[in-house]
Fold these 2 entries.
Entry 1:
Amino acid sequence: MTPPLPRRPAEHVERALCVLAHPDDVDFGSAGTVATWTAAGTEVTYCIVTDGDAGGFDDTPRERMGPLRQEEQRAAAAAVGVTDVRFLGHPDGRLELTLDLRRDISRVIRQVRPQRVLTSSPERFYERIGASHPDHMVVGESTLRAVYPDARNPFAFPELLADEGLDAWTVPEVWLGASPRTDHAVDVTDVAELKFAALKAHVSQVGHRDDLEDFVTAWMTRTARTAGLPEGRLAEAFHVVYTD
């Protein structure tokens, strides 16, 4: 039997949805990629599962941290052309794989009706343990379960249709960030400044780091080299999962 030809992601999609655990997750891993999508005319929505109220490095009162990080994420999103930013309000640092979380993500998928979903890998990345925050893995697994089977199954969470009028929706592609099995790289060299602008909007998280650009540039340089891109290029990498 002849093996199937390797698949490639769609060249362009009309709508993409990024589902991440915390404010700044999408910007560290994917803001350059998002900038290339919005520049090409893709409408991108961010769905942030928590408000990030367990983060920060200073004496900002805890009750202020969540609203502050929401403001920072909206500013970061605007830097890469995203205006639709939604927060689910689940507890930062205490996410669990629950039916409620799957339903909430399924709801947003049915509202946005994206042809592509970007989220975090549910697999632990032992060589980059910092990427495998428990919240990241829970959101990745919950999002995959929301994509298949929940959002496409009209009989899953029937209240979404009966009470909210949200029809089932099938997502063809899921892009997993921080995966130990990446198979697709995006050259983000030409939009790197937009990524840096997005990251710098998260003052409560990165304001203490004078080396932020150097650190992120070195990271993207290694990713580009691993992907076989020419010297001097910068990249973000993903594991692309096809759902059909």
Entry 2:
Amino acid sequence: MKRMIRVLALAAWLSPLLAYSADEVKLIRANSSIGSKYGFTWQNTGFDVKVKDLGYEKSVSIRYRDADGSWRDSALSFSRKAEEGREIWTGNIGRYRSQDGQPLSPIDLEYAIRYTVNGTDYWDNNQGANYRMAANAGENLYGVEVYNNAYYPVNNYFYGNLLGGTVVLRNIAPHKEVQVHYSIDNWQTVKVAQAQYSQWYWMGQYAHVDNPSPTGFEIWSYYLDVGSANQVEYAIKYKVDGQTYWDNNFGRNYRTTLLRPS
């Protein structure tokens, strides 16, 4: 609790009002991995945050403790609409090089989410404990059991007529089934692709993370046969331990425009 008090003390001069969040802001997904090539090492990160749309002018950021103990902010960007007047914001912590151009060493992360709108700061600070994530923790989910961790609204990268993607899920039980239900004709017909699990997973550029991750999350991969279509719509189904969980982009389904070489 003392650490979070220090976070808020640093934030106080930035905004006249501070508020803990009930449901105004919530972390959905976070990942961190260590990449290396040609003797250089760096840290890849990613965050998905859901906020309630309380006004046009708003900002969402990650407040994290840097290696020197100071607190820094890294801005997130609007990604897409979600359910019931909410939005998804995404981004990363850009810890690659110092001001003098030297590579920065990876760090274990301590952080909170800050949402500023209408002159008020709302915080998701993991109920006062802050969020913590090892430098090579891989994927982590918060409040959901399955999530599309590689969504692109526009995609021009194909294997023939196959569109690839990945899903992150909570490892609830050993026996499970992961499917992608999709359509290329506005749901006049529906196809089902089976996602596959592999013990080894490479995340981002030259970064290896054990699968499942140290915190118990798995990555599954899939390919959608999209033929010559220029758009695909899909949702993810996860069956485990007698339960079924869906990631349908918070009730809106995922939609990807497919760009092909001219």
